[in-house]
Amino acid sequence: MQTWSLVSICVLLGVVVRWGVSLNSYSGAGKPPMFGDYEAQRHWQEVTYNLPVQEWYFNTTENDLNYWGLDYPPLTAYHSLICAYVAKMINPEWVELHRSRGYESPAHKLFMRATVLVADLLIYIPAVVLYCLYLTDGSSKKKVSTLFCFLLYPGLILIDYGHFQYNGVSLGFALWGVLALGLGWDALGSMAFCLALNYKQMELYHALPFFCYLLGKCIKLGPMGRGFFLLVRIASTVLVTFALCWLPFLSDPSEALQVVRRIFPVARGLFEDKVANTWCSLNILIKIRSILSSDSQIYLSTACTLLAVLPSSVKLLTKPTFWQFKLALANSALAFFLFSYQVHEKSILLAALPVCLLLNDLPLVAIWFLLTSTFSMLPLLLKDGLLVPYVVTSLAFLFFSLYLLSALEHCSEEELRLGAYHKMLFFLPKLDLACITRWKFYIGVAAMAGLSAVSVALVPPPHLPDLFPVLVSTTAFLQFLGTFLYFNIVQFSGPPSRKTQKKNN
Amino acid sequence: MAAPGLDGCSWFAALSLGVSLLKCLFMDAYHSTDFEVHRNWLAVTHSLPVSRWYHENTSEWTLDYPPLFAWFEFGLSHVAQHFDRNMLVVENLNYASPATVLFQRLSVVFTDLVFIFAVRECCRCVQEQKGPRDVLSRPSFVLAVLLLWNFGLLIVDLTGFMFGKGDGFPVCVEQSRHLQGALLFAILLNLKHIYLYVAPAYGIYLLRSYCFTQDHKDGSVNWRSFSPLRLLALGAIVVSVCALSFGPFIAMGQLPQVLSRLFPFKRGLCHAYWAPNIWALYNMLDKVLAVLGVRLKLLEEAELPRASMTGGLVQEFQHSVLPSVSPSVTLVCTLLSILPAVASIWRRPRGARGFLRCLLLCALASFMFGWHVHEKAVLIAILPLSILAVESREDAGIFLVLTTTGHYSLFPLIFTPAELPIKVVLMLLFVIFSFAALRKLYSGQGSLLRPLESVYLAGLVAVAIACEIVFPLSPWQQRLPFLPLLATSVYCSVGVSYSFLRLYASLLRQDEKPKQL
């Protein structure tokens, strides 16, 4: 069948799964007084529509920052404003100042879900389609299979359409950036990434690879010549984009400062809740939060993050190819997730996006990581009442990605690029690493399935009320750490050789 | 490069798993009145003695399927009591605890397995062309998708549980397992009497090809090869199944009561949402003539009965200008319309494909002329047509017209705004797939659709946009709320009638030049 009909079928299936998930509950449904992220988004529509721009980020009588104050950069605010205009046309009660707090109704839920779908259709999904069609190699069937699995990634669907967020917008812009860079349009790519950054500050996880790639490219082109002009072009694009986004706040420096203060709150702790990163897992053995002062906590996490992200960035700087870029994105996001300050579970999506880009090249590990990322958010999903969508989408993703990408067939040592492991583990007897990897995969999936079932079915013992979330985050952490090491090793092993590429095609 | 992973029979498992997971995802989506119907029947069969089953009317949804279905519900109720005992109390009208819903949906998933098995059998029967072919262009793959991911079945599953997955059973007859086919059909008929529509096809075909063991050289009937033994075997099977299901009720003398429940003729010519059949056109004509008559001062407005046909409720009504239609008239029309098909299969049975065509025509004819037909009934015709469509180019063209219009006529069954994206997207999915796949299957043989048909289908899109988007936002929404239903039904009945005529034409044309299949 023609590619376009296959592509439209994949997109339509993606949309139907998304809408199916959106019929379920959202975060904070029916839970006054604070509700959840859904109410936060609705509140931002209310605030941006009714108040002048200068007051959006300030604590005034009209705008109580303690009740879901705006803590994302201006582009989110503008997006909320557009949604608010539409909401006002349909039903003004939804965005009435003060009176609409905690507003919940089926019609309103439909509207909010629709805004997420529209944003996805305009930004995220086209980027995914174009990426899969133009920047992956293989037959057109392989491209369509990759597209389908990419669109079926459960984590993003469950968070955006279940819990309720607009990650599709920021990740979509970042993906446009990656797409543009892959096609060689550097200025456009940097503009897209700046838009992503101005939508959610968490995109800083991806900032270092973008910076190193572009800088490395400029240096390669010759620091005194075309490289310099490229650098100037990129720098000016970035500055202009930032200026345009922050325009209303540039008139008064104190306003801009307040925005920055809102989006980077430094008064919080090393971690909140149970998240699958190093500090939280370490906390089980050593109570870090009580041993170190909050300043030293910040220094420690910064130091560790920099250390973790340094090798990958330096490698990218010296060798700015697209393959290195994709791996560096994954490594950087994972490094930040594992070692950074005040990380939320949802930040794993920032690592999941680059790994989705690697679905075509390293299918088994990518699928494994993507499943684990969804699993790591299980406590959050259970709190939101999203068990059925979680199970259905995870099963669908596991089965279809293994089937369509033949992940279990294409896992010889060469394809998994395990050669470097042999060199590192030279002191151990000759092992069949591919077989080991496959078994690790099976055990990992079994463990995740088992823990999911147990979290739902059993009640934790009274003296260990957080047993299951802790188990979930620790298991996920171990798998993330392993994946982080793997991707770093792959990045340093060199590009896929022409021979293996020809075999895959 | 061979398609990765798409080899062997694994694609069938992938398709089935996909559609089952999709249905699981929509588990909480929609409860229609069918949900309450099912629960009520579980309660009635579990809590009351057999003699009260067909007299019970606490709920408005009385037992109106044949006794074998009642026995089936009885069996299910024993499983249901482990989920939630309270659903089996007859007085608990509209009881919908989460456990109840879970049980209902699980029972649907289970019955789906039966359907999936039947589809697999169908796909095995499809003739494959020699030579390595990419999986996506294989007829069996296309057929599997057309049957498993049939938009109509998905929508019907969303809205209710009652639809027959038993349409796969014709396949057994195809494989010349006549007795098995007879048995399965008898069971099916006793489960849902809607299959009475196609009983003549089965009956005549089995009689003809099974009881007459040999044909003359040119295919006509060889009276001397009649085998009374085989007739007895067939008869025994059918009678025993019917006895099993109706027996207790005949013994208790409740047969008239049961029949009156099964065939409630008080329900009116057309269903609440008009099925796109001849009577929709007839009603429309009647309305138009009435309005014209009033305008041209030929009729007195006061003489006309109040406009209740477009009322959307299930009532009896009279036509104003054209003669009123009674149940017997529809029966006669239906019988007349299936006569040529049945006669042709008697004179020259053309094996399994001929039988399938006759079955399809009987189903469609009953749909066109029947009394109180539900739109869902068009699926009984669409599913067999899918099998024919992957093998013959002409049938593929007719299939595209019939399915698109038939499926679109199901749109009004789902009317909440939350489900609007689902039905639109699923419809688009099915349309894109059927057009692209069938076109690829018959590539190089010219276009599948005639220009007029393409224009008609494009017009369907316009009607869809008008009804779903434009109309609710327009000022006529209050005054004429059933206008979109009317427009949908009338527009679709044109398409369905056209497909019916073309199918008949193809059957009679084949009759003139007998082909050995």
From TrEMBL, chain A:
<feature type="transmembrane region" description="Helical">
    <location>
        <begin position="173"/>
        <end position="197"/>
    </location>
</feature>
<feature type="transmembrane region" description="Helical">
    <location>
        <begin position="110"/>
        <end position="132"/>
    </location>
</feature>
<keyword id="KW-0472">Membrane</keyword>
<keyword id="KW-0808">Transferase</keyword>
<feature type="transmembrane region" description="Helical">
    <location>
        <begin position="348"/>
        <end position="371"/>
    </location>
</feature>
<comment type="similarity">
    <text>Belongs to the ALG6/ALG8 glucosyltransferase family.</text>
</comment>
<feature type="signal peptide">
    <location>
        <begin position="1"/>
        <end position="22"/>
    </location>
</feature>
<feature type="transmembrane region" description="Helical">
    <location>
        <begin position="323"/>
        <end position="341"/>
    </location>
</feature>
<comment type="pathway">
    <text>Protein modification; protein glycosylation.</text>
</comment>
<dbReference type="Pfam" id="PF03155">
    <property type="entry name" value="Alg6_Alg8"/>
</dbReference>
<keyword id="KW-0812">Transmembrane</keyword>
<keyword id="KW-0732">Signal</keyword>
<feature type="transmembrane region" description="Helical">
    <location>
        <begin position="144"/>
        <end position="161"/>
    </location>
</feature>
<dbReference type="GO" id="GO:0042281">
    <property type="term" value="F:dolichyl pyrophosphate Man9GlcNAc2 alpha-1,3-glucosyltransferase activity"/>
</dbReference>
<comment type="function">
    <text>Dolichyl pyrophosphate Man9GlcNAc2 alpha-1,3-glucosyltransferase that operates in the biosynthetic pathway of dolichol-linked oligosaccharides, the glycan precursors employed in protein asparagine (N)-glycosylation. The assembly of dolichol-linked oligosaccharides begins on the cytosolic side of the endoplasmic reticulum membrane and finishes in its lumen. The sequential addition of sugars to dolichol pyrophosphate produces dolichol-linked oligosaccharides containing fourteen sugars, including two GlcNAcs, nine mannoses and three glucoses.</text>
</comment>
<keyword id="KW-0256">Endoplasmic reticulum</keyword>
<dbReference type="InterPro" id="IPR004856">
    <property type="entry name" value="Glyco_trans_ALG6/ALG8"/>
</dbReference>
<protein>
    <recommendedName>
        <fullName>Alpha-1,3-glucosyltransferase</fullName>
        <ecNumber>2.4.1.-</ecNumber>
    </recommendedName>
</protein>
<feature type="transmembrane region" description="Helical">
    <location>
        <begin position="387"/>
        <end position="408"/>
    </location>
</feature>
<keyword id="KW-0328">Glycosyltransferase</keyword>
<feature type="transmembrane region" description="Helical">
    <location>
        <begin position="441"/>
        <end position="461"/>
    </location>
</feature>
<feature type="transmembrane region" description="Helical">
    <location>
        <begin position="228"/>
        <end position="249"/>
    </location>
</feature>
TrEMBL record, chain B:
<dbReference type="Pfam" id="PF03155">
    <property type="entry name" value="Alg6_Alg8"/>
</dbReference>
<comment type="similarity">
    <text>Belongs to the ALG6/ALG8 glucosyltransferase family.</text>
</comment>
<dbReference type="GO" id="GO:0042283">
    <property type="term" value="F:dolichyl pyrophosphate Glc1Man9GlcNAc2 alpha-1,3-glucosyltransferase activity"/>
</dbReference>
<keyword id="KW-0328">Glycosyltransferase</keyword>
<feature type="transmembrane region" description="Helical">
    <location>
        <begin position="183"/>
        <end position="207"/>
    </location>
</feature>
<dbReference type="InterPro" id="IPR004856">
    <property type="entry name" value="Glyco_trans_ALG6/ALG8"/>
</dbReference>
<feature type="transmembrane region" description="Helical">
    <location>
        <begin position="140"/>
        <end position="163"/>
    </location>
</feature>
<keyword id="KW-0812">Transmembrane</keyword>
<feature type="transmembrane region" description="Helical">
    <location>
        <begin position="321"/>
        <end position="342"/>
    </location>
</feature>
<keyword id="KW-0256">Endoplasmic reticulum</keyword>
<feature type="transmembrane region" description="Helical">
    <location>
        <begin position="354"/>
        <end position="371"/>
    </location>
</feature>
<feature type="transmembrane region" description="Helical">
    <location>
        <begin position="482"/>
        <end position="505"/>
    </location>
</feature>
<feature type="transmembrane region" description="Helical">
    <location>
        <begin position="454"/>
        <end position="476"/>
    </location>
</feature>
<dbReference type="GO" id="GO:0006487">
    <property type="term" value="P:protein N-linked glycosylation"/>
</dbReference>
<protein>
    <recommendedName>
        <fullName>Alpha-1,3-glucosyltransferase</fullName>
        <ecNumber>2.4.1.-</ecNumber>
    </recommendedName>
</protein>
<dbReference type="GO" id="GO:0005789">
    <property type="term" value="C:endoplasmic reticulum membrane"/>
</dbReference>
<keyword id="KW-1133">Transmembrane helix</keyword>
<feature type="transmembrane region" description="Helical">
    <location>
        <begin position="228"/>
        <end position="251"/>
    </location>
</feature>
<comment type="pathway">
    <text>Protein modification; protein glycosylation.</text>
</comment>
<keyword id="KW-0808">Transferase</keyword>
<keyword id="KW-0472">Membrane</keyword>
